[in-house]
Specification:
Structural class: alpha/beta
Strand content: 15-25%
Distance between the termini: 35 Å
Mean pLDDT: 91
Radius of gyration: 16 Å
Low-confidence stretches: none
Order of helices and strands: EHEEHEHEHEEHEHEEE
Number of helices: 6
Shape: globular
Length: 197
């Protein structure tokens, strides 16, 4: 069951922040498609996303970060990589980098980490306020097309049952134009390798 559906607003940023900080899950429009969001340091919240999506636990999730400083806290980034990131962020590019092991993170790969700074005003405000990386993945059942219509999102949630999620928030940004998820570029081997383009 849905806890709440609200429109993007400054007040909505605070509501979404409170829900994420207490182990809830947020669905939010992005500059690509609608995405699930959760606190990467909350094991139960991340597990709920895997359950709703029916996604194998062996498939790691990517993270939204607020800025390059936050990215550097999570990943090893040299000068050449930084130039590439600065050129593409914020935007529709997810980069895979070598992971630092400073903090316990859930839903991410063991030795690498996939990061993105989105170009969407509400989401940027949310990341700035919560000031921590958020697990993110498209709203869909694993292997199915990403949802772009709010009616499809509500139907998906009703069908898969979200009664075990104590707090669930949908940010209703309206129906999005049909767009592809972000492009995924692997930078771990010193060369740019496109995994999804």
């Amino acid at each position: 069951m849905l806890s709440k559906i609200i429109k993007p607003s400054k007040g909505g940023v605070k509501i979404a922040t409170d829900i994420l900080q207490t182990g809830g899950v947020v669905i939010c429009p992005t500059d690509t498609v609608y995405g699930f969001l959760a606190d990467v340091q909350n094991k139960k919240a991340v597990g709920r996303i895997y359950k709703i999506k029916k996604r194998p636990k062996s498939k790691p999730l990517s993270l939204f970060v607020n800025d390059l400083k936050m990215a550097k806290d999570l990943a090893e980034i040299d000068e050449r990589q930084e130039k590439i990131l600065r050129k593409r962020w914020p935007g529709k590019y997810t980069f895979i980098l070598k992971r630092k092991h400073k903090t316990k993170l859930y839903g991410v790969a063991k030795n690498t980490i996939a990061l993105r700074i989105p170009k969407y005003k509400f989401l940027q405000g949310l990341l700035k306020k919560i000031n921590k990386p958020l697990v993110q993945t498209s709203v869909n059942i694993s292997g199915k097309p990403a949802a772009t219509k709010i009616s499809d999102i509500i139907l998906l949630l009703k069908n898969c049952g979200t009664s075990d999620v104590p707090q669930f928030l949908v940010i209703d940004g309206g129906d999005l134009p049909k767009r592809k998820p972000s492009k995924v570029i692997d930078l771990t081997d010193g060369i740019k390798k496109a995994l999804r383009y």
